[in-house]
Specification:
Radius of gyration: 17 Å
Distance between the termini: 20 Å
Number of helices: 2
Oligomer: single chain
Number of domains: 1
Strand order of the largest sheet: 2-3-1-4
CATH topology: Alpha-Beta Plaits
Number of strands: 4
Amino acid sequence: MAIEHGAPQVPNPLRVLILFESTGWFQTTGEEKREQILPKLNDVLAAWKENGSQLLGTLDRDILTAGAAGNTGWHAIFLYDVPDLQTVASMTHGFRATGLDRYFRLEAIVGRPFFLLEEAK
């Protein structure tokens, strides 16, 4: 059976990889983390659950690293299926609006499932 691979099609939902980098986090106190930063981060992540996005998986690379992420530019990644591009923009803006961008950097990469490993839905 021959495998056909034509031009990529924009999927619905979008497959979105969010790179999460700790930036100012290391310059904060334990009290700031507990009382200000982590509650805001939990609120943002809870809002992402309510926007129609589906979390597919996460990876935190802190098992064999400490400190700044270095050349990779991320500490953790989140993989979501997201309804549309506006929702992705709202996710990143919602993060920014809380002031969390002072402590973390987010970058969203939009793509699709890899055709040889995941069947089309």
